[in-house]
Design brief:
One of its GO terms (cellular component) is cytoplasm. The protein is α/β, with parallel strands linked by helices and about 425 residues long. The protein has nine helices and 21 strands. α1 runs parallel beside α7. Bound molecules: flavin-adenine dinucleotide (FAD).
């Protein structure tokens, strides 16, 4: 395949009339942030996730640039991943947590299109992505681009994350799971005391208080693999217990066996631990597997040994990848310091948008591109929802926990409204 060259056409007034083509892979926190902040900049507005204006300070308005943004996602909508523990415990919340792209006002713009498909391959040299459509016919198509932002996150297993790719199918998946746990007479065991296991156990207990929920962890402390101070780990244990969840620490699951009552009518599972302890449960939720970056469509040269994208501080691909300067990666799929968080993904989306915009202005050859945004080292920080309360650890403020922390970090819907508003997804800003 030959190299794709963008022909820039300048009209009599000096405006660029041939749009730059930007491909965003993944329409979640990172991808939507990149797409919408870029849209702002290209429409000569302050980027929505950037710092607000300082009183009295005159900032240069970004230069208007024609752009066409294509967002490809395997799902048919934005799924509020953080809300998964609640979406898989409450049917009404499940309805709220997945919004089809066509129902997001901010994406209603003639120069933004969404494609429901899976990116299979990216040729960074020719700047062509191969996409297989999801739903309907599995047709393959190719998308040419000038700049690419990858925000495809991590592959996570069921039931940590729903596996459905359409909203309708997801609602069935969630509802079946919720009904199965509601009927669990012997209770539910959640295996894995990391952030995901803690949140899943606590949300289940919150929504179905009659249920016995046991959180099982192989180590002596919750959040044992996170680079957090012991105080944060201890605080999470206090909150989990307060939420009414039974906790078994230092219990490593060996195997589960199906068990049937004497009259054969009652089936459940017996969990055997390596320390000899056993317990019964009707449902076992495994929240222990290590997620894998969704990066198989990228050239191996761009990835580290674990499949994370080796970004530079400006979020661009490594310089030894063909056209590395025109390819960016953000969010969970990148190799960078810090605990993977949605706030980090949205922040990187803003930086990537800024830096793509900057490349465009440089390409056109007229100044005013603004500063390049570079990531600094991100220290460990976390906000963890545990039932009605939350625990947070921030390097500047240390550990905090309580209902006020829940309100500040998650509001009353596990952060859905906070993320929705931060990305201004409810606002359509079509410029005539
Ligand atoms: C259960 C759970 C609870 C969490 N709780 C919190 C929390 O309380 N606070 C917090 O800050 N973070 C939390 N996180 C982490 C947070 O969800 C992630 O950091 C965040 O989702 C990262 O955003 P992203 O845009 O990088 O990736 P994702 O949100 O994973 O989005 C990736 C998108 O890419 C799409 N995609 C993947 N591969 C392809 C492909 N080949 N082609 C097309 N599309 C593709 C996916 O469908 C998806 O929509 C939690 C995570 C989980 C699983």
């Amino acid at each position: 395949m030959g190299s794709f060259v963008h022909n820039i056409v300048v009209d009599g007034t000096g405006n660029i009339t041939t749009p730059f083509r930007v491909l965003v892979i993944g329409g979640s926190y990172g991808g939507l942030s990149a797409a919408l902040n870029l849209q702002d900049l290209c429409q000569s507005r302050a980027p929505r996730c950037g710092p607000g204006p300082v009183e009295g300070q005159q900032l240069d308005k970004p230069r208007e640039i024609a752009v066409e943004i294509t967002i490809v996602d395997e799902r048919d909508g934005f799924y509020h991943l953080i809300g998964s523990p609640l979406a898989l415990a409450s049917e009404s919340y499940a309805e709220k947590a997945w919004v089809k792209f066509e129902d997001i006002p901010a994406l209603r713009s003639p120069n933004i299109r969404t494609v429901h498909g899976s990116v299979q391959y990216v040729d960074t040299e020719s700047k062509i992505a191969t996409v297989v459509a999801n739903g309907g016919d599995p047709t393959t198509s190719q998308i040419q681009y000038d700049y690419l932002v990858a925000s495809a996150g991590l592959r996570r297993v069921w039931p940590v994350v729903p596996q459905s790719l359409r909203r309708k199918q997801y609602l069935f998946e969630a509802s079946e799971h919720i009904r199965a746990s509601a009927n669990a007479r012997h209770g539910v065991a959640v295996v894995g005391g990391g952030a995901v296991g803690i949140e899943m156990a606590a949300e289940l207990k919150l929504v179905q208080p009659q249920l016995t929920v046991t959180l099982v962890h192989s180590r002596s402390q919750l959040l044992s693999s996170e680079p957090l101070p012991a105080e944060a780990k201890d605080a999470s244990l206090v909150l989990v217990r307060e939420a009414g969840v039974d906790v078994l620490l230092s219990h490593r699951l060996d195997r589960t066996e199906e068990e049937t009552s004497d009259n054969g009518s009652d089936k459940c599972l017996r969990l055997h631990f390596t320390n000899g302890h056993t317990m019964l449960a009707d449902q076992v939720i495994m929240a222990i597997s290590r997620p894998i970056p969704s990066s198989s469509f990228l050239p191996a040269q761009a990835l580290d040994k674990d499949g994370y994208v080796r970004i530079r501080p400006d979020l661009a691909f490594p310089a030894d990848v063909a056209n590395g300067d025109d390819h960016f990666a953000i969010g969970d799929m990148v190799s960078w310091s810090g605990i993977k968080r949605c706030g980090g993904a949205m922040h990187m989306g803003y930086f990537a948008a800024n830096n793509v915009y900057r490349r465009m202005v440089q390409r056109i050859g007229r100044g005013g591109e603004g500063d390049v945004k570079e990531l600094k080292e991100i220290p460990p920080m976390i906000g963890l929802a545990v039932g009605k309360k939350a625990m947070s650890y921030w390097p500047q403020t240390g550990v905090a926990m309580g209902e006020d922390v829940m309100e500040a970090f998650f509001g009353n819907d596990l952060g859905f409204t906070i993320c929705w508003n931060h990305l201004q997804l409810g606002e359509s800003r079509v410029v005539a």
